[in-house]
Predict the structure of DUF4905 domain-containing protein.
Amino acid sequence: MSLRFKYDFGAALWRLKLDTATGNLALEVRDGDLLLTSFWVLNCQTLALQELQLPRPNTWWYGLEEAHGGFVWLHGYGDRKLGQHKGITAMATNGQVLWEQPELAFYGVGQRGLYAHEVQQPGTGLRLLEIASGKETHQGISQAEAAEQVHLFNTLRFENCQYPVLYLEGETYFNEVAAFLQATQAIEAVKAIEYLDTASHILVSCYRQSSEGKLDNYLFIFDLEGNLCYSECLASELSGIGSDTFFIFRGDLYFIQKKEILQIHSLLV
């Protein structure tokens, strides 16, 4: 195992979206003090990092929606108090704005295109848009059909990715992994454990009680004999648990440390 990439963005890494088709990782970084949002694309092979330049200066009211096939989709906000998504902005990974649909909201990506809906009617009459142009090709699509198509396509898109399984406190597998952590690392896991095993490693993300009811999140990596290969404190003084605190893509391990630092490690070494 070896470190391939480490970068401190200096603000909270809010959302990651992996484009498995092109091997790019889109990132949303939010600075709550300055009320600024920035968007980045990382080439997972070359590790080249590029910031996307938005056409409007007030970036706080943008968010990362999805990434696929060399496209990055951003959303705006309708009802900002409720965080309601409104508007779709399609960008290329070089930062060029390709098209916009200001009155629609993103639903998901399928084999045939991008599904969108009217903001006030999210469950009825979905529309299918061309990915490259944003032009409408079909309308009146049911939510059930769109959900099925998005699910099927996601299964294909992420077949080369590995995400951990979440076990909640009290479940059988939680108790078994927690007992292993207690015996080998003298750590008492609480609330939840994320577990993933590969052909060469066992990866565990767990939480330990810290001061005043807060939680610390740890990542442990073992070989198949149970020997510790690597450990890291991902975050401290958390108010709750998360999910997908790490993932593996093309033999590399991805995780966020201290909310602001992206690390990529090769598991093939």
Q: What stands out?
A: DSSP finds two helices and 22 strands in the chain. The first strand starts at residue 2 and ends at 8.
